[in-house]
Design brief:
The chain is of the alpha/beta class. It contains 18 helices and 27 strands. 38% of the residues lie in helices and 23% in strands.
Length: 542
Amino acid sequence: MSFIDQIQSSFPVAQDSIPELDRFAAAVQQNEYLINGELRQWSGPFQEIVSPICVKGDSGYAPWIIGHAPAHNRDTALIALDAAVKAYNLGRGAWPVMSVAARIKHIEDFTVRMKAKRTDVVRFIMWEIAKNREDAEKEFDRTVDYIRDTLQALKELDRQSSRFLIEQGIIGQVRRAPLGVVLCMGPYNYPLNETFATLIPALVMGNTCVFKPPKLGILLYRPLLEAFRDSLPPGVINTVYGVGEEVIPPLMETGRIDVLAFIGSARVADSLKKAHPHPHKLRSVLGLGAKNPAIVLPDADIETTVSECVLGALSYNGQRCTALKIIFVHESIAADFIARMAARISVLKVGMPWDKDAKITPLPVKNKAEYLDGLVQDAITRGAKVVNPDGGTFFKTVFFPALLFPVTPDMRVYQEEQFGPVIPVVPYSNVETALEYVYNSHYGQQLSIFGKDPAIIAQLVDPLMNQVSRVNLNSQCQRGPDVFPFTGRKGSAEGTLSVTDALRAFSIRSLFAAKESELNKGIISDIAHDRTSNFISTDFIF
């Protein structure tokens, strides 16, 4: 059996060949959408939700249609925005003036309801973006942990604000206040976790939200609509579906979006910011592209380096902003490194998301395999070789990883963010080759250094920390732990996320101040004692 035939045989031929827990009895017709606390029924056109998982039919293998979701228009998007604006009500709405403790209880209630939908959400993640079961479950569980950690961080932040300061005869209290209406859009590769990394802190800080699910990963939010409705006041969160180019620019053009929370391409982010009539008033929290390099020094521990590089480059098929997307290896160890990398890649299992130990699964973006093949063919014509057995072989939506060597600057894959299972390896004799790549790169998220000599590593770390936001030693690039700051320089990000930084990103430090007179001290004391203000308060959240 040829390798293409092996890939083809990994696709299901019928429903009964799929484990019962993972099947869809029928295509999902989602009519519901949430606006102003109501689950409304959509009677307009629908968008077809196509899984990257192909199934055999009369005319061969084709992607499986798993459902339909509303294809909203401009008018519906503006209705959703109106609901969010009304709920915020210039900062006078019930949600923005609510106490921090009360908002926390609402989000805790949502989390309980969300956890009850784990099985459904995980199944949708598997089918919509072909993430294997283990990683889909991890994404759900990590998201729940992120919510819990965010609420704990907010309690600590509020405790620090629960006292008055007296400086130079001025009594003051500093707390964090919401910014207004947030437009929240996450990415397809982590459609739940990355989206909630902005949505949850935006909500719990008192903002109201218009939320559009990722272009891939839409139906997985259907089980959560009731949880949002039953846990949050009307208008605090409102959903918009459809083609982003049709429903999002009209929202920005109104000027009523106060914060843009977006994880995706820089091109889209730039166009959205330009659409806002008052860009100086727009706060942006952006997670954009990355081309994270690994720099393998001549004294690197080869086994550790290869293991981390395979994980870093190919976890979820390399479809991560934090993936290692180009590897610079010293020429003295390049042959050994390449041979071991090729051997590790050759044993990776191709399969469907529910298959045990499947590491290479279908790619959800349309024509992605063809794009990756184009990168590989361009590199080959310019002198590179695919050095792993069957590398670059693809059938329909499955693309087996291609390890390319030697890669040179004139190849597309040297500069383009491939966001998939193609691994370019660049040999170098002088580490300045790798450093110049970092210095000249449009991106600046992370990089990894593999080596043993403390003196050399120290010399590299100091300048590189001024180019990227995180340097990893002898390990792959990654986001976690979530308590660490996650951001990027240059064109990779705007704003910083972590369980604490995100709370700051979606709020502003605000000060209540009064001269230290007897009258003012009496007023403040009465307000705090009678608990008539949620801002002027000494309440301590346990």
